[in-house]
Amino acid sequence: GWSRKWCVLQDHLLAFFDQQPTSHSASEAESIEVVPWTDLEALVLVPPTGIDLHLRGGRTVSLRADSADRSLEWTADILRLAAAHAVRLLARALGGEWELVYVDEDAQLMGDG
Q1: Which residues, 6 or more positions from 99, have their beta carbon under 8 angstroms from its beta carbon?
Q2: Which domains does the chain have, with CATH numbers?
Q3: pTM strictly above 0.85
Q4: What is the pLDDT at residue 86?
Q5: What is the pLDDT of residue 106?
Q6: Per DSSP, which regions of 29-104 are E strands?
Q7: What number of H helices and E strands is found in the chain?
């Protein structure tokens, strides 16, 4: 069955808690489980409010939000942090061959007129 847990997205991992963490208690040491971004292999939306995280080793963590909008918000945040982590890993692996370019979010894409 389902049980209520809290998930905190951090720079390098997802941390799960039995109780709602405060800003002071949201540490890895106090979490009940930690999932490093490097273990995330796929993210699957399960309408209307679900998100399944497929992890290395064949394990799946199923999350449910309180609304469809909140589910999409969580999905975007998870993907954003996982992508940022991947960029940092590439930068580290490629060293001097890599250049990180920051883009203004308000800038128009080429061809948008």
Answers
A1: none
A2: 6-97 (2.30.29.30)
A3: no
A4: 83
A5: 63
A6: 33-36, 40-46, 50-55, 60-64
A7: 1, 6
b or e along 75-86 (b: 16 or more beta carbons within 10 Å of the residue's beta carbon)?
Answer: beebeebbeebe
Taking the C-alpha atoms of residue 31 and residue 83, their distance in angstroms, rounded to an integer, is 23
What is the CA angle 85-76-79, rounded to 5?
25
DSSP H/E element including 58: none
Lowest mean pLDDT among 14-18, 99-103, 106-110: 106-110
Cα–Cα distance for residue pair 78/89, rounded to 1 Å: 17
Sign of the alpha-carbon torsion through 104, 68, 14, 31: positive
Q: Which residue has the tokens 């109780």?
A: 19
Q: Is 57 exposed, middle or buried (0-12, 13-18, 19+ CB in 10 A)?
A: exposed
Give me the residue label for tokens 């580290």: 92
